[in-house]
C-alpha cells in the first residue's frame, strides 16, 4: 500500500488543484495564496486565506450563475487610493469636455439640482457655449469653480445647497452628477477621457495636487498592490470577483481592466443612451432612478446578477444568493458589505456608519484594516448610539443591530 501511495502521489499532486472541492486546502494543492504583506493588519490576511481555503475551487474563475462564490469590491479608496471619478471630472474641466446642457438649462443635468444651483451654474457658464457644445472650462475660471463647488461641496460658491429631494441611502448626488455630465459623448470617447485622466494621475507624484479653476484638488491616484494581489488570488481560486462602484461605469472599466476585471464584471453608475450618445438620465434600478450607492449597490447586484426585479431588488436576499466576501471604505458601502456571508473588510477612512458596524462586529465576520497608502490617524470615538445611521431624508439616528438593540459608541482601534 505504501508503494502504491508513493506511485500515485505525483499524479494526485498534478490533478489536485483542478479537482479540489470547496473545502480544499489551497496551499496543499499549490494554488495561488495571498502574499504576506505588512499592509495587512493583525490576522486579516490569515482570515482571508482561511476563507479561500474553505470555499476555493482551486481552478479557473467561474460565474456566480454557475455556482462560483461571489466576491464584491468597491473601487474608489478600496482598490485604489483616491477617487477615479473625481480624477476624470477634474480632467474634463481642465480639458473643456463638459457640454452646455440642453437649452442652457442646468436643471436638465440632474433632477436633484436645486433652483439656486441651476441659476448659479447658468450665471457662471451660460453664455460661454451654445447648448450641446463643450464649455471652455479649461480657461474660464468662474465656470470651472462653480462646477467644482457643486460637485465637491454640494453647494454653490455662495453657499446655497446644490442638491435636494434625494434618498440619502440610494443616491449620492455629486457622484451621480459627475456621470450625468458625461452627456453628449459616446462610450468610446469617455473611455479615451478616462484613460487620459488615468495616465495623468498615475504619472503624478504621490501627494501632489492639481489646479482646477482657481482651486487646488487631489492630483494623483495609486493602485493598492495588496488589493490587486487579493483579486488575483481570488480569481485563481475560482471566485467570481466583481466591482460595484458609485463612479460612472465607463470610467471604472478603464481602471479596473488593469487589475484583470472584464468589462462585464464592473458595475458603476449608468445613464441612458440616445443612440450612441450618453444622456443625463440615470438608469433605473428597483423601478426608480438609482446609482450603486449604499442600498443602491444591493439593488444593482440583486438585479444584474440574480435577476430580481422591482422594489424587491432593494431587499436582502437569502444567504445562498449573496456574496461571500465584500470590501469597501465608506458609508456608501455599508449595505453590500453587510450582506456578505463569510467575511467583510472595512478599510478605515473614519466613516461613521461603516466603522460602527465593523467595530461592533456583532457576528464576528468583520475585519478592519487601515488604508494601504496614507492611513488616517485615530478618529475620535464614533457616535454610533446617536448618529450612527444615515436616514433617507438626511437626518441621523442611532445605529441598531438586527435585533433592535442600539450599537454603543465605538473607539477607533485600527488606524
From TrEMBL:
Any GO MF annotation of the entry: magnesium ion binding
Pfam families: HAD
Recorded catalytic activity of this chain's protein: O-phospho-D-serine + H2O = D-serine + phosphate; O-phospho-L-serine + H2O = L-serine + phosphate
One GO cellular component, as annotated: cytoplasm
InterPro entries: HAD-like_SerB, HAD-like_sf, HAD_sf
GO biological process: L-serine biosynthetic process
Signal sequence, renumbered to the chain: 1-20
Keywords carried by this UniProt record: Amino-acid biosynthesis, Hydrolase, Magnesium, Metal-binding, Serine biosynthesis, Signal
Top-level taxon in the UniProt lineage: Bacteria
Annotated pathway: Amino-acid biosynthesis; L-serine biosynthesis; L-serine from 3-phospho-D-glycerate: step 3/3
EC number(s) reported in the record: 3.1.3.3
Region annotated Disordered, chain positions: 383-415
Cofactors, names only: Mg(2+)
Family as reported in the entry's similarity comment: Belongs to the HAD-like hydrolase superfamily. SerB family.
Name of the molecule in the record: phosphoserine phosphatase
The species this protein was found in: Mycobacterium gastri
Organism placement in taxonomy: Bacteria, Bacillati, Actinomycetota, Actinomycetes, Mycobacteriales
Amino acid at each position: 500500500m505504501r508503494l502504491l501511495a508513493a506511485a500515485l502521489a505525483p499524479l494526485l499532486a498534478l490533478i489536485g488543484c483542478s479537482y479540489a472541492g470547496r473545502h480544499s486546502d489551497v496551499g496543499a494543492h499549490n494554488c495561488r495564496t495571498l502574499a504576506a504583506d505588512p499592509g495587512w493588519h493583525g490576522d486579516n490576511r490569515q482570515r482571508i486565506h482561511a476563507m479561500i481555503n474553505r470555499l476555493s475551487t482551486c481552478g479557473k474563475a467561474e460565474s456566480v450563475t454557475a455556482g462560483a462564490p461571489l466576491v464584491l469590491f468597491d473601487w474608489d479608496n478600496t482598490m485604489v487610493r483616491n477617487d477615479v471619478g473625481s480624477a476624470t471630472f477634474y480632467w474634463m474641466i481642465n480639458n473643456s469636455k463638459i457640454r452646455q446642457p440642453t437649452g442652457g438649462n442646468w436643471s436638465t443635468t440632474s433632477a436633484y439640482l436645486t433652483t439656486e444651483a441651476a441659476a448659479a451654474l447658468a450665471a457662471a457658464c451660460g453664455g460661454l457655449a451654445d447648448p450641446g457644445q463643450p464649455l471652455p472650462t479649461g480657461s474660464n475660471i468662474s465656470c470651472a469653480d462653480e462646477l467644482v463647488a457643486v460637485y465637491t461641496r454640494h453647494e454653490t460658491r455662495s453657499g446655497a445647497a446644490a442638491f435636494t429631494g434625494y434618498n440619502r441611502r440610494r443616491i449620492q448626488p455629486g457622484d451621480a452628477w459627475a456621470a450625468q455630465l458625461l452627456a453628449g459623448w459616446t462610450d468610446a470617447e469617455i473611455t479615451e477621457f478616462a484613460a487620459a485622466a488615468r495616465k495623468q494621475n498615475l504619472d503624478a507624484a504621490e501627494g501632489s495636487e492639481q489646479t482646477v479653476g482657481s482651486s487646488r484638488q487631489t492630483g494623483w491616484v495609486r493602485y493598492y498592490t495588496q488589493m490587486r494581489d487579493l483579486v488575483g488570488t481570488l480569481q485563481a481560486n475560482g471566485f467570481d470577483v466583481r466591482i460595484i462602484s458609485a463612479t460612472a461605469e465607463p470610467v471604472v472599466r478603464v481602471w479596473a481592466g488593469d487589475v484583470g476585471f472584464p468589462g462585464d464584471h464592473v458595475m458603476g453608475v449608468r445613464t441612458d443612451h440616445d443612440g450612441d450618445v450618453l444622456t443625463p438620465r440615470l438608469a433605473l434600478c428597483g423601478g426608480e432612478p438609482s446609482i450603486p450607492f449604499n442600498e443602491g449597490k444591493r439593488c444593482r447586484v440583486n438585479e444584474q446578477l440574480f435577476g430580481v426585479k422591482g422594489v424587491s431588488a432593494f431587499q436582502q436576499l437569502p444567504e445562498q444568493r449573496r456574496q461571500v466576501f465584500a470590501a469597501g471604505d465608506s458609508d456608501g458601502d455599508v449595505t453590500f458589505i453587510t450582506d456578505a456571508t463569510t467575511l467583510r473588510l472595512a478599510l478605515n477612512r473614519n466613516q461613521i456608519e461603516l466603522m460602527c458596524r465593523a467595530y461592533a462586529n456583532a457576528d464576528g465576520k468583520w475585519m478592519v484594516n487601515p488604508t494601504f497608502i496614507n492611513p488616517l490617524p485615530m478618529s475620535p470615538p464614533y457616535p454610533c448610539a446617536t448618529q450612527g445611521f444615515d436616514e433617507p431624508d438626511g437626518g441621523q439616528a442611532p445605529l441598531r443591530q438586527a435585533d433592535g438593540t442600539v450599537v454603543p459608541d465605538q473607539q477607533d482601534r485600527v488606524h
